Amino acid sequence: MSFKWEGVMPAVTTKFNDKDELDLKMFETNINAQLEAGVHGIVLGGTLGEASTLLEDEKRTLTRSTIEIVKGQVPVLMNIAEQSTKGAIKAAQQAEDDGAKGLMMLPPMRYKAGDRETIEYFKAVANSTSLPIMIYNNPVDYKIEVTLDMFEELLECSNIEAVKESTRDVSNVTRIINRFGDRLKIMTGVDTVALESLLMGADGWIAGLVCAFPAETVAIYELQKAGKIKEALEIYRWFLPLLELDINPKLVQNIKLAETYTGIGTENVRAPRLPLHGREREHVINVIETALRTRPVLSDYKNLKVLV
């Protein structure tokens, strides 16, 4: 397993301008902020990336542009969220051709596939590419659960290497470790149980609020890895009201609004999404502004001695 499934990997938002075109200038600003904070990878085209609204050529532009920006500092992953096996295979091959170093994969979109169908879907894509794959297991939002028994079959494909664990059941981290040991790497995928999952043995964090608060997110990861749990907890407790913006149907709008407050994004979303308004907007602004007033001063988290 040559790919390093570890650390903080932002599921970055896709930036649009006022004409509903890709805003690559602001996108680069955000990616550079992530790199400066010390993230360990970049995930494109996920839920936060408004994957379902992106055109094929836009996804390819995002992949190529990100690779140019990061210049090999961290791996770039593309999410595969397609309605058909044929479409998923094509998307995976395009991502590989464009230079992506890994894939995140959701089960089939729209159609609620059965266990056998889901397994065959993932296997067909895995067998079509040499890229390492992380299965995105989010039954809460996408209504298909990839069970441990299903993973038993999926791991017959050597390039299926990791899971984005988003069941929201922290004990599932232990179940995966007990069943598969080091064969299946675990990237926690729900911000509000991220530290708990890391402490239970998850290898890394596919994060959401990192899009607006990259340094705080990476600091939590690095501090817990170095055994400085108390310091990590202090940041995490401050962070939680913000992190709860990620477990909301309007997580994209919430996080993009937060990005405007930290100067690394805009509120532009692609219809049918619309920016927040009314009481909903007032609530999110209050959460963000309260957090900014009490924002912690971070220690030198980039140079910690990691516990073996």
TrEMBL record:
Domain of life of the native organism: Bacteria
Pfam families per the UniProt record, alphabetical: DHDPS
Keyword Zinc listed: no
Keywords associated with the record: Lyase
E.C. numbers: 4.1.3.3, 4.2.1.41, 4.3.3.7
Gene3D superfamilies tied to this protein: Aldolase class I
GO molecular function: 4-hydroxy-tetrahydrodipicolinate synthase activity; 5-dehydro-4-deoxyglucarate dehydratase activity; N-acetylneuraminate lyase activity
Major enzyme class: lyase
Methyltransferase in keyword set: no
Family, per entry: Belongs to the DapA family.
Name of the protein described by the UniProt record: Dihydrodipicolinate synthase family protein
